[in-house]
Amino acid sequence: MLVLIMVLLFTLVLLLAFYVINFVLSIKDMGKNKISAFECGFGSVGKIQNSFSIHFFIMMLMFVIFDLEIVMFLGILVSDLSSYVSFLLMFFFILGGFYMEWWYGKLVWVI
């Protein structure tokens, strides 16, 4: 038990030391270009809050979620026959989520 505490303490001290060394040695450039918002190399026009449509972020989030669910489907399908029920439950849950996104109009590609 004492060895575990010593290892944990050593790890925390090492983590803190690396963090402090990184902070001290890093280059801190606070120029105008460094602290301004980056918008694909173009100068910002108007308010920065209005320059990005949240619709693209929602579509990306849905893609990532459905992509991960497809990976989970493959893992369930190749495991064994007894996991077929869990596969069906997850499939109906995903279809329900997809239906809700369609119902609330989140799948429309109009900006």
UniProtKB/TrEMBL annotation:
This is NADH-ubiquinone oxidoreductase chain 3. Core subunit of the mitochondrial membrane respiratory chain NADH dehydrogenase (Complex I) which catalyzes electron transfer from NADH through the respiratory chain, using ubiquinone as an electron acceptor. Essential for the catalytic activity of complex I. InterPro entries: NADH_UbQ/plastoQ_OxRdtase_su3, NDAH_ubi_oxred_su3_sf. It is an enzyme of class 7 (translocase). It is a multi-pass membrane protein. It is found in: Membrane; Mitochondrion membrane. The gene is ND3. PANTHER family: NADH-UBIQUINONE OXIDOREDUCTASE CHAIN 3 (PTHR11058). GO terms for molecular function: NADH dehydrogenase (ubiquinone) activity. It catalyses: a ubiquinone + NADH + 5 H(+)(in) = a ubiquinol + NAD(+) + 4 H(+)(out). It comes from the Eukaryota. The keyword Ribosomal protein does not apply. The chain crosses the membrane at residues 6-25, 56-78, 84-104. Its EC number is 7.1.1.2. It comes from Caenorhabditis briggsae. Keywords: Electron transport, Membrane, Mitochondrion, NAD, Respiratory chain, Translocase, Transmembrane, Transmembrane helix, Transport, Ubiquinone.
